[in-house]
Design a protein that fits this description.
There is one protein chain. By secondary structure, the protein is of the alpha/beta class. It has a single domain, classed as TIM Barrel, CATH 3.20.20. It is built from ten helices and 29 strands. The strands form seven sheets. Strands 4-7-10-11-12-13-14-15 form an eight-stranded parallel β-barrel, surrounded by five helices. Helix 7 links the parallel strand 12 and strand 13. Helix 8 runs parallel beside helix 9. The chain is globular, with a radius of gyration of 23 Å. The two termini are about 30 Å apart. Bound molecules: alpha-L-arabinofuranose.
């Protein structure tokens, strides 16, 4: 049995806080300090990412006003309702790699006069720009979500980015504000989150960190705050374990010019991605092993940030994360369409727990991508829409939005395969504004239930309710024929005892408890 320190007020490196003791009792234990919470879990950790890629935008959100699929000004009603249900806090757009070849002026004005372009990154398909700035902002308004726009550094100019900000957010008389009015929108929009380029170490221009840092300072200077609108600018951060990129950007960009620094980290083996469905237990184990390594890498990035910014003024923004498997056989390789199983649900649950626990630095994160691409929450097919296991995790975990993180300390057993071991449980806890405590626990062990005792300190609990996501197989998934194969169910097996709350966590399951 291993004991794992889950939450600390002082940020420690993962290696320092990993295994700190042994528990021989065979029982898993979660100690929660209900009166020692200090940091709020920003709801923007539960953010999303939608790119002009495959069927994410076209067919996913956008069907056009003349479609027989129920829509509001061209945007699917079913998708909007599903995303509102999970309280989608922000939406990153238009890319990804697409952002650094997107020229926003091609996506405004009458749709039939908008120029077409080649989407060179994603399948070489024709992009007709029918979904542009006004459509995206309308989508955000329908969803009640905050836009997170990624500007073009790679193939754009400072002037182009600066004018986009003016077009969106300036309410007075100016060439761009007037153009916006000509295009049917009088009032300026509110846009806070603004990324200055995407993956500028790769598809966004293959820049060196020093060169990008200088470019960032230049572009960011001309992204102005107009009136009440205050931009929260995000610098394009590192790929996975590229700590030098983080080091250089933190050293060269002053905190006053950078609200956030991003990080992209996918759960994948780039050389052998493997199938999204029908995987072996070995492949399952390896995916979870990769996923559980990500918090270690995040902590290394945070350690570098702490060196330059001990007051934690700069947010870490993990604006692309999730599983990346082989595309489904027979689908366009450039569309990155993959199915979504119980394994994906566990990857989501673990990421969200780990982000929660680092909420003093991680203020925002965006799963890639919302609809029909990579670790999607929603699939659409013509007029049909379906929710994936990952969607259901976001739905259960929404109780953590803007809640107070509660420090917790987990002791648990291992999931073993072929002589390798992973801690079988992963958890986080928070207290909401009503004083209700929520505990989310993932049991990745496909063969063994875990007997967990929750030792809740500082409060007496009278009632425990819960929801569970599980299925007979780790490969279980939803499909258009069987959309409810993996859905949440009520969980009533938690018992309040003298020495804590006893919870039997079934093998391969996620449980979210509410303690009152
Ligand atoms: O999400 C797919 C792609 O992955 C994004 O466009 C890019 O930023 C990343 O490499």
């Amino acid at each position: 049995m291993k004991r794992i320190l889950l939450v600390s007020f002082v940020v420690m490196s993962y290696s320092a806080c990993h295994i700190i003791a042994q528990n021989e009792s065979g029982q898993a234990k979660l100690v929660i300090q209900s009166d020692l919470g200090k940091y709020t879990i920003c709801r923007h950790i539960y953010g999303h990412f939608s790119e002009h890629l495959g069927h994410c935008i076209y067919g996913g959100y956008w069907v056009g006003e003349n479609s027989s699929i129920p829509n509001t000004r061209g945007i699917r009603n079913d998708v909007v309702a599903a995303l509102k249900e999970i309280g989608i806090p922000n939406l990153r757009w238009p890319g990804g790699c697409f952002a650094d070849e997107y020229h926003w002026r091609d996506g405004i004005g009458p749709r039939d006069t908008r120029p077409k372009m080649i989407n060179t990154h994603w399948g070489g398909v024709t992009e007709d720009n029918s979904f542009g700035t006004h459509e995206f902002m309308d989508l955000c308004e329908q969803l009640g979500t905050e836009p997170y726009i990624c500007g073009n550094v790679g193939s754009g100019s400072v002037e182009e980015m600066s004018k986009w900000v003016e077009y969106l957010t300036f309410d007075g008389v100016s060439p761009m504000a007037d153009l916006r009015r000509e295009n049917g929108r009088d009032k300026a929009w509110k846009v806070q989150y603004w990324a200055v380029g995407n993956e500028n170490w790769g598809c966004g221009g293959h820049m060196t960190p020093d060169y990008y840092a200088d470019q960032y300072r230049r572009y960011a200077t001309f992204c102005r705050n107009y009136g009440e609108n205050k931009l929260l600018k995000v610098a394009g951060g590192a790929n996975s374990e590229d700590y030098n990129w983080t080091e250089v950007l933190m050293k060269r960009i002053p905190a006053w010019q950078m609200w956030g620094l991003s990080l992209h980290y996918y759960t994948t083996d780039w050389w052998n991605k493997g199938p999204a469905t029908g995987f072996s237990e070995k492949q399952y184990f390896e995916t979870l092993e990769r996923c559980l390594n990500i918090p270690k890498a995040i902590d290394k990035h945070i350690t570098i940030m702490d060196k330059y910014d001990p007051e934690k003024k700069v947010a870490l923004v993990v604006d692309e994360w999730g599983t990346w498997f082989n595309v489904e056989p027979g689908t366009n390789p450039g569309f990155l369409f993959q199915q979504n199983t119980l394994r994906d649900a566990f990857v989501a649950g673990i990421h969200l727990n780990e982000f929660n626990k680092r909420c003093d630095r991680v203020k925002m994160a965006n799963i890639a991508q919302t609809i029909n691409v990579l670790q999607a929450l929603i699939f659409t097919q013509d007029d049909k829409m379906m929710l994936t296991p990952t969607y259901h995790v976001f739905n259960l975990y929404k109780v953590h939005h803007d809640a107070l993180l509660l420090p917790s300390d987990l002791t648990c057993g291992d999931y073993e395969l072929d002589g390798k071991k992973l801690p079988e449980l992963n958890a986080s806890a928070s207290k909401d504004k009503n004083g209700f405590i929520h505990v989310s626990v993932v049991n990745i062990n496909p063969k063994k239930d875990a007997s967990l005792t929750i030792d809740l300190r500082g409060i007496a609990v009278k009632e425990v309710t819960g929801k569970i996501i599980t299925a007979p197989e780790i490969t279980a998934m939803n499909s258009f024929d069987s959309p409810d194969a993996v859905v949440p169910a009520d969980y009533n097996k938690a018992k309040i005892g003298k020495d804590g709350i006893k919870v039997q966590i079934p093998a391969k399951s996620i449980i979210v408890l509410e303690l009152k």
